[in-house]
From TrEMBL:
Name under which the protein is recorded: All-trans-retinol 13,14-reductase
Organism whose genome encodes this protein: Labrus bergylta (ballan wrasse)
Subcellular location: Endoplasmic reticulum membrane
Gene Ontology cellular component annotations, sorted alphabetically: endoplasmic reticulum membrane
The UniProt record lists the keyword Signal: yes
Protein family membership: Belongs to the carotenoid/retinoid oxidoreductase family. CrtISO subfamily.
Organism classification: Eukaryota, Metazoa, Chordata, Craniata, Vertebrata
Topology term for the membrane: Peripheral membrane protein
Molecular-function annotations in GO: all-trans-retinol 13,14-reductase activity
Assigned EC number: 1.3.99.23
Cofactor: NADP(+); FAD; NAD(+)
Keyword Glycoprotein: no
Length: 578
């Protein structure tokens, strides 16, 4: 361990020095680009003009510097970084609107966020917040969640135990200790451990930038689980520990104003200002290569017609499996270097989402700006395995884990936009193979059997919700529908309906994979961005964009973002003094 840390330190110093003295590219975080907050636009038509610009070949800008496949935060974020240093970038999105997992949709007057319920670490001046502010020119606004911000609920209906999770450096452990008297030592020990792993994630960022052979010396493992069982005999506490591991370092204190589509809405103009464009209904069917096997563009498929688009650089936000298995010509797919990377990755778990539109305000329905993590038992490792490997009809009747949040209650602009209404979003996992047989049918017209299966999942999830939120009754439900793994394949291009990209099992953190899976691919001028390059989740995908931008611009943008955060803090402190 010590040796590992020592090596990490030495390499860090070398790389910090390298990037300080040899940074060759321009810095997108050079200046503070925040502008005064403009009035929020609620008019759907106005937003559509930005988010839903359909692909037409004559809308493609001339002399592109790069083309990006996919408009998730990984794709848009990278496009913004490149635009900020004057590059002309085209982003192509297969769906009918920009945003990827950050897109929103409206049904029966209810607006739903697809994949962002939870963003952490947004305190003023923290690098991550600073980065996001800079990348949206300061137009995103955030508001704090409730404290406690999370409720961990364990056990069956007749014996549910609730553990509120508070934010705050000391309040968080103090409140946890109140829930588990006698376990103080285990809690302190565990938090110390998780913090260490959290720091490792930062090291991961540098790993991606080091030359591969050097990076392989660095040791990083998530050896947490084995340790937990040695810390405590209390099964509920073990379960809470596992939850903390999944969310720690990502403790949410804020959520965004006006829904997740605000993010894309404020990024696109920055890309356009540099001469670029973000076009939707633009499915890329292949990446183009020259005779030297260097990427030189992409082809967009509209109907039966292919539109080739040329650019000196191609960056894929479509995930490693789509990129390597669908978009590369056959002869390049079989390259040993590509096969090796693929063999180290697995598809992540498929997602199940339930969207509920309710008649009533948050007060009437007892909804708050918080999140519920509901587990039917405290041994959820086993439960989840049993669930995912079970018969679909059986599994649909007992969903072992359910994340529940009310996006409307978290958004103070909601009441003005949709008075008297509320929404709930539920997220869980589902096995892709349960739904695979229907994957080729039209999304709005799938078989009765599919609808019935979906309904069983909905009923199961709804029963949990009705039990935990007693003010919600069936007559308040105006809209309810579910998205399955095949829904995700259609709308966000996830090949196996994954919600977090490639699998995040322990293998993902092996030094070998960490060092090999980088934004650079074995093919010249082809790069990867987004969650598969770094880690999943909004913050992970954005960090993926930063890592990819670092490789392209040949400087460490993680350090640049930290640098900007420091100056911004400095400037604010100075203003106060004056
Ligand atoms: C239901 C759900 C809930 C989630 N909850 C949270 C949460 O609370 N907190 C959190 O941090 N994260 C959450 N996530 C995960 C998070 O949203 C993702 O990890 C992150 O946004 C991924 O960003 P990305 O840019 O890597 O990929 P994506 O957002 O998936 O973007 C990839 C884009 O590429 C497009 N694409 C694919 N193939 C092609 C092609 N051939 N041509 C053109 N375009 C293509 C896709 O349509 C998509 O728009 C959730 C995800 C889901 C689905
Ligand atoms: C919503 O609830 C109110 C009373 O609480 C009722 O008057 C109204 O008709 C309901 N609306 C719908 C669409 O069900
Ligand atoms: C999904 O089900 C298939 C078939 O039953 C099984 O082989 C696979 O392991 C399951 N997937 C997961 C993630 O458990």
């Amino acid at each position: 361990m010590l040796l590992g840390l020592g090596t990490i330190c030495v390499v860090l110093v070398i790389y910090i020095l390298k990037y300080v003295f040899w940074s060759s590219g321009p810095n997108p975080f050079e200046t503070d680009t925040r502008e005064p907050v403009r009035k929020m636009v609620h008019d759907q038509k106005e937003k559509k003009k930005v988010l839903k610009q359909g692909f037409l070949i004559n809308k493609v800008p001339k002399d592109l510097d790069a083309v990006i496949i996919g408009s998730g935060i990984g794709g848009l974020g990278l496009a913004v970084l490149l635009a900020k240093v004057g590059k002309k970038v085209l982003v192509l999105e297969q769906h009918d609107r920009a945003g990827g997992c950050c897109h929103t949709f409206t049904e029966k007057g209810f607006e739903f966020d697809v994949g962002i319920h939870y963003i952490g670490d947004l305190q003023d001046h923290k690098p991550f917040r600073c980065m996001l502010d800079s990348m949206t020119n300061g137009q995103l606004q955030w508001e704090p969640l409730e404290n406690p911000f999370d409720q961990v609920v364990l056990g069956p209906p007749e014996n549910r135990r609730r553990y509120p999770i508070y934010s705050g450096r000391t309040r968080f452990p103090d409140e946890l200790k109140k829930c588990f008297p006698g376990e103080e030592k285990a809690i302190d020990e565990y938090l110390r451990l998780v913090k260490k792993v959290g720091r490792g994630i930062w090291v991961l960022a540098l790993l991606k930038l080091c030359p591969a052979p050097l990076a392989k010396f660095l040791v990083y493992t998530g050896l947490v689980r084995q340790v937990v069982n040695g810390l405590t005999e209390n099964k509920d506490l073990r379960a809470v520990f596992a939850y903390i591991f999944g969310t720690y370092g990502n403790m949410p204190k804020d959520s965004s104003f006006g829904g997740a589509s605000e993010i894309a809405y404020h990024m696109i103009p920055i890309i356009e200002k540099a001469g670029g464009a973000v076009l939707v209904r633009a499915p890329v069917n292949r990446i183009l290569f020259n005779e030297a096997n260097e990427a030189c563009g992409v082809s967009v498929m509209k109907g039966d017609e292919e539109f080739p688009i040329h650019a000196p650089m191609v960056i894929s936000n479509a995930g490693i499996f789509n990129t390597y298995q669908k978009l590369l010509p056959k002869e390049l797919q079989t390259m040993p270097a590509i096969q090796k990377q693929l063999s180290m990755m697995k598809n992540g778990e498929g997602g199940l989402s339930v969207f509920v539109g309710l008649n009533g305000t948050k007060e009437e329905l007892g909804l708050k700006a918080d999140n519920y993590w509901i587990f039917t038992e405290n041994n959820f490792d086993e439960m989840v395995e049993k669930y995912l490997n079970g018969e679909r009809e059986e599994s649909a009747k007992s969903i072992p884990l359910l994340f529940v949040a009310s996006p409307s209650a978290k958004d103070s602009t909601w009441e003005e936009r949709s008075p008297g209404k509320s929404t709930l979003s539920l997220v869980s996992f589902a096995n892709y193979s349960w739904f695979e047989e229907w994957k080729d049918a039209k999304v709005t017209n799938r078989a009765e059997e599919y609808k019935e299966l979906k309904q069983t999942f909905i009923d199961t999830a709804l029963n949990v919700v009705l039990d935990i939120f007693p003010k919600i009754t069936r007559d308040k439900i105006e809209y309810i529908d579910a998205g399955t793994p095949i829904t995700n394949t259609y709308y966000i291009g996830a090949p196996k309906g994954e919600i977090y990209g490639a699998d995040h099992g322990i293998g993902r953190f092996s030094p070998e994979l960490s060092a090999t899976l980088r934004p650079q691919t074995p093919l010249k001028n082809l790069y990867l961005t987004g969650q598969d390059v770094f880690l999943c989740g909004f913050a992970g995908a954005l960090a993926g964009a930063l890592t990819c931008g670092s490789a392209i611009l040949n400087r460490n943008l993680h350090l640049d973002a930290i640098g900007l955060a420091k100056t911004m803090k400095f400037m604010k402190a100075k203003l106060k003094d004056e």
